[in-house]
Amino acid sequence: MLLANRVNNLFDEMFKDPFFTSPSWFERSQMMKTDVQEKEGNYLIDMELPGYAKENIQAELKDGYLTITANRNENKDEKDDEGNFIRRERFVGSCKRSFYVGNGVKQEDIKAEFKDGILRLAIPKEIQGIEEKKNYIAIE
Fold this sequence. Notes:
A hairpin with a 5-residue loop joins strand 4 and strand 5 (85-100). The chain has two helices and eight strands. The chain is mostly beta strands. The strands form two sheets. The chain has a four-stranded antiparallel β-sheet, with no helix packed on it. It is elongated, with a radius of gyration of 22 Å.
């Protein structure tokens, strides 16, 4: 009985650790940190997306708004030699940010690259014309 109580206390204490609790509003607000600068007639956007794969990031242009969406579905299973779970965690989440870039910007005007957890976008500052349909930007 004493051993069972010690094991229960161990697990109770382990799951009180901040590692196992959901992120606070402050931590969520730190997602997708973005730097925007103006350089040589372009707006340059650097967005931090650590832990995301390029294929899970989407850049969409619609009605003058550039929207970046990142999705992640992660499953970490750890088992002992007998196949019993020691820990089993899952994470599914997405984050999204939008920027108004103007109605004159077209999909082909925007250059995007994802490297080392940073999405880099170059958007022309002044473009003439109107973009009416939804377009996706290829991320290299």
